[in-house]
Amino acid sequence: MTGTDGPSPTIVYIIGVGHSGTTLLDLLISSHSAVTSVGEAITLSKNLDARCTCRARPLRACPFWSEVDSALQRRHGLRLHDLDLDADEVDVLLAHNRMFYGVVSEVSGGQFIVDSSKRRLRLAALLESGQFDVRPIHIIRSPFGVSYSNIRKGRSWFSHAREYQHNVRGTRQSLRGHDHAVVRYERLAAEPRAELGPLMAWLGLSFEPAQLDWAQAEHHNIGGNRMRFSTDSTIRLDEKWKTALTPAQKLGIVLATFPARFPCWFAPATWSKSITRRFSGVPRSAPRRGGHAAE
Fold it and tell me: What is the pLDDT of residues 96-134, one digit of tens each?
């Protein structure tokens, strides 16, 4: 796909419910030598004074983002704080995202950009516009794990279970008819090498062993959970929900998420054994440790 400023970058758009492994998947993919991540790009404006994943503080002082800001001003007369990447007006949303991705690609020198913003309506706008080369990846985690992660943050498991089924169903509907990949968190965390190989091939890239040492790669992600600051690349499957949730909570989550569940979800114990992955479309031809549980 080619635009007025040259070839458009390929946007690897990660979508999923919060606490479903989006940051982990982002870090693994963007540790490839040909890939750059912008993290949760839609939070750009509120994170300019926060710490960058490269540990520069504030983010606006990060050498990478400073160069992006300068290039954006030079090419389009805007600064990072002027961008609204999730604007209500579709024309503004598309224009600002087009400028943003183009400049990030120019500064990074890479064709592939990971965006783990997760916002479904924004993804739909990018896909329907036909102006972007978007490769959506839907990451799905057991609703029990997602609900328990919210409980640990003092949130209502019931409201988040209901949001889970709405989000999963809505995302599946939005992606219908579009080439996309589906990744299961449980299998990714348990067997990252086995999962990344086919996924990178689908993107048109070869898996690089260095991707598994993601904590040693340089990242400039906007937002995301605290694991992005880790110096240890060990990945541990987080299934504390199995013993922490009460039988009543598990039953409630089963009922609340029923409309969105796949057949294997009827037997929660099979989650780590009967996980499947589906890639629609065909692979493209190629053109990059004390651990913590990954969420």
Answer: 999 999 999 999 999 999 999 999 999 999 999 999 999
Question: If we measure between CA atoms, which residue out of 86, 39, 56, 48 comes closest to residue 225?
Answer: 39
SS3 state of residue 109? coil
* Residue 288 near residue 211 (C-beta atoms within 8 A): yes
Beta strands at 35-39 and 181-184: parallel, antiparallel or unpaired: unpaired
Which residues on neighbouring strands pair with residue 241, listed in sequence order?
A: none
- Alpha-carbon distance of 13 to 138, in angstroms, equals 8
Residue with tokens 């340089």: 218
Crossing angle for the helix pair 63-76 and 90-108, nearest 10 degrees?
A: 120
Picking from 4, 50, 6, 7, the residue whose alpha carbon sits closest to that of residue 287 is 7
Determine contact, residues 250/257, Cβ cutoff 8 Å: no
Angle at alpha carbon of residue 277, lines to 282 and 269, rounded to 5°: 175
Tell me the per-residue pLDDT of 172-186, one tens digit each, with 9 for 90 and over: 889 999 999 999 999
- The total of other beta-carbon atoms located within 10 Å of residue 285's CB is 7
For 173, residues 6+ apart whose C-beta sits below 8 A from its C-beta are: none
Domain residue ranges of the chain, discontinuous segments joined by +: 7-141+178-234+282-294
Q: pLDDT digit string (tens) for 193-218?
A: 999 999 999 999 999 999 999 999 99
Segment holding 115, helix H or strand E: strand 112-115
H helix or E strand, kind and range, residue 139: strand 133-140
Query: Distance between CA atoms of 275 and 253, rounded to whole angstroms?
Result: 19
Per-residue pLDDT at 277 exceeds 60: no
The CA distance from 24 to 228, in Å, is: 8
With a CB cutoff of 8 Å and minimum separation 6, the contacts of 116 are 14, 22, 23, 25, 26, 37, 39, 40, 221, 224
Tokens 């065909």, located at residue: 282
- Among candidate residues 120, 49, 42, the one with its CA nearest the CA of residue 84: 42
